[in-house]
């Protein structure tokens, strides 16, 4: 390769590297950070972007059993019932001033039999279902409230639905009103709001 061609290639590469550094230096990386409520809105389109959901993992949930307080929602986006449930939880939480609901997408942990997930199941053993194999599991959607490390409320109204019933049919005006009221009573108890 002749010297002039080699120098030309090196010069072009140098200019491209400088241009790349300038581009990266001017890029605003903060715009790519998605906060929890916006991420939740992307996964659950029927829940508004100004929702109260905060992402949590099995460890985050498990530590609340050590004298902690939390409203915990366990579900996953591919479970069509979870979206309806989350929307109702968010509605009541915003109405009553619940600042955050921990959201734990537990599907992968349940499939891999994650040890911390199993510990959460054990803490909820008096509420969970036992399948035909004798294994206890949590099914989506599930919500529970922990106060001072103890479960004070548990709800999994639609976690085990049989047949071809769709969430649209099940959550008619009457069933929705009943569930919203049930959540209100649970949240008021959690917040210490007297009637």
Description of the structure:
There is one protein chain. This protein has helices at residues 3-26, 36-43, 58-63, 80-96, 107-112, 115-123, 167-170, 173-191, and strands at residues 53-55, 70-75, 101-105, 129-130, 136-137, 142-147, 150-155. The protein is elongated and about 85 Å long. The chain is 48% helix and 15% strand. With 195 residues, it is of the alpha/beta class. The model has no long low-confidence stretch (mean pLDDT 89). The longest helix has 24 residues, at 3-26.
**Straight-line N-to-C gap:** 87 Å
- Average of per-residue pLDDT values: 89
Low-confidence stretches: none
- Radius of gyration (Å): 24 Å
Structural class computed from helices and strand pairing:
alpha/beta
Label this structure with key terms.
alpha/beta, 5-stranded mixed sheet, two-stranded antiparallel ribbon, elongated, 48% helix, 8 helices, 195 residues, 7 strands
Q: What is the topological layout?
A:
Elements: H1 3-26, H2 36-43, E1 53-55, H3 58-63, E2 70-75, H4 80-96, E3 101-105, H5 107-112, H6 115-123, E4 129-130, E5 136-137, E6 142-147, E7 150-155, H7 167-170, H8 173-191
Parallel strand pairs: 1-3, 2-3
Antiparallel strand pairs: 2-6, 4-5, 6-7
Helix pairs in contact: 4-8
Outline:
With 195 residues, the protein is of the alpha/beta class. The protein contains 8 helices and 7 strands.
């Amino acid at each position: 390769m002749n010297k002039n061609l080699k120098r030309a290639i090196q010069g072009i590469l140098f200019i491209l590297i400088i241009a790349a550094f300038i581009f990266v230096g001017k890029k605003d990386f903060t715009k790519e950070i998605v906060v929890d409520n916006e991420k939740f809105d992307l996964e659950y389109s029927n829940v508004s972007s100004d929702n109260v959901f905060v992402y949590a993992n099995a460890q985050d949930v498990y530590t609340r059993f050590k004298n902690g307080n939390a409203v915990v929602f366990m579900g996953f986006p591919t479970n069509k019932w979870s979206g309806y449930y989350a929307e109702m939880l968010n509605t009541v939480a915003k109405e009553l001033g619940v600042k955050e609901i921990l959201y734990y997408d537990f599907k992968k942990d349940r499939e891999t039999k994650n040890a911390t997930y199993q510990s959460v199941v054990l803490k909820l053993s008096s509420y969970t279902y036992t399948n035909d194999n004798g294994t206890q599991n949590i099914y989506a959607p599930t919500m529970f409230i922990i106060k001072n490390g103890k479960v004070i409320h548990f709800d999994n109204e639609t976690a085990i639905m049989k047949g071809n019933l769709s969430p649209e049919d099940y959550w008619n005006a009457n069933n929705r009103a009943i569930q919203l009221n049930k959540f209100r009573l649970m949240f008021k108890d959690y917040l210490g709001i007297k009637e």
